[in-house]
Design a protein that fits this description.
The chain is α+β, with helices and mostly antiparallel strands. The protein has two domains: 93 residues, Phosphorylase Kinase, domain 1 (2-Layer Sandwich); 217 residues, Alpha-Beta Complex (Aminoglycoside 3'-phosphotransferase, Chain: A, domain 2). It has 13 helices and twelve strands. Strands 1-2-3-5-4 form a five-stranded antiparallel beta sheet, with helices on both faces. Helix 5 packs antiparallel against helix 6 and helix 8 crosses helix 10. It holds the Pfam family APH. Keywords: Transferase. GO terms for molecular function: transferase activity.
Length: 322
């Protein structure tokens, strides 16, 4: 059951910092994830923090993030936020982290030259390779652990991916294209022989620009709540898809730089990634299917035209893996 976000924030602050006075709360930008509420907290003593509350009452995401941040800090050679407090205020789980050193990629990215973007995205490739270097015997969902190791609820990669898809379905803001979730799940299971040969490594889960930070010494990530043991090729596929949104010429340069950074750290790209890419093409488009009502607010087309374009693209991708 969803709870009021403002009340949940106030309750979490009281639980985590009963003796500290808060001067100001502010938003952290738009989010399509209505299951969380995240705010920046300015304390009266001048310190700051970020508070995330799971307003849907589901503590699993907080548990994953609470486990993976110290693990990545100890074992992955990437920058991560410092956890200041975590717990539950009534039925609402929360996590408080300190601000990351350095700068977030999201705001400056559009203003950088292509050369600057190439340099920075190469560093992102190397940072993801450092995360993916943590290998596991089987895929699965991270349910606990810490710096000493992770507790993984193991399964095949096919069923782990299906669970990721079903989680995205639950978070969706519209059920208009719910049928596509069913069809993609069917296609994923039909390709189990291909998918289950994938490597099993730690993956961040959402290495989008707002979640990437850089300092002079390191590149790092925030928002580890959907980290899992998965196929590193899918994570690369997600990043490369976003880079190609910049157009053919620029996208090719950025993808090339991203891969170079990854190869430099990992020694090569994930084995068999091209074989699994068509499946991930279809899975990736569920991000639009589940939030189509929000997607149409940001496209240069009428809702009808956007729907026709999306449906053609989705059917084409499904045809490639059916």
């Amino acid at each position: 059951m969803m709870v009021d976000g403002t009340e949940a924030v106030e309750a979490a602050l009281t639980d985590a910092f009963p003796a500290r006075r808060v001067d100001e709360l502010s938003g952290v930008g738009p989010s399509w994830n209505d299951a969380n509420r995240t705010v920046r907290v300015e304390f009266a003593d001048g310190d700051a923090a970020f508070l995330k509350v799971a307003v849907d009452g589901d503590g699993s995401r907080i548990a994953t993030e609470r486990a993976v941040i110290p693990y990545a800090d100890a074992r992955c050679d990437v920058a991560v936020p410092t956890i200041l407090a975590t717990g539950a205020a009534g039925s609402t789980p929360y996590l408080v982290t300190a601000p990351m050193d350095g700068a977030n990629f999201h705001r400056p990215w559009a203003d950088w030259s292509v050369d600057e973007r190439e340099r920075e995205i190469e560093r992102v490739g190397a940072a993801l390779a450092a995360i993916h270097a943590r290998e596991f015997d089987r895929h699965g969902r991270i349910v606990g652990g810490g710096a000493g190791g992770l507790t993984v609820e193991t399964d095949s990669w096919t069923e782990t991916l299906v669970a990721e898809i079903e989680r995205d379905r639950r978070l969706a803001s519209t059920d208009r294209y719910d049928r596509y979730f069913d069809e993609v799940v069917e296609a994923v299971r039909a390709n189990a022989d291909v998918l289950d040969r994938a490597p099993a490594t730690l993956v961040h889960g959402d290495p989008a620009m707002p979640n990437v930070f850089r300092t002079d010494a390191a590149t790092g990530f925030i928002d580890w709540e959907i980290a899992h043991v998965g196929d590193p090729a899918r994570e690369l596929h997600r990043v490369e898809g976003r880079l190609r949104d910049w157009g053919d010429a620029v996208g090719d340069r950025l993808v090339s730089a991203f891969r170079e950074g990854y190869r430099r750290r990992a020694g090569g790209l994930p084995v068999g990634r091209e074989e699994r890419a068509p499946v991930y093409d279809a899975v990736r488009l569920l991000g639009t299917a589940g939030f189509f009502d929000k997607h149409v607010e940001h496209v240069d087309a009428s809702p009808e035209e956007a729907a026709e374009r999306f449906e053609r693209d989705m059917e084409r991708r499904l045809d490639a893996v059916r």
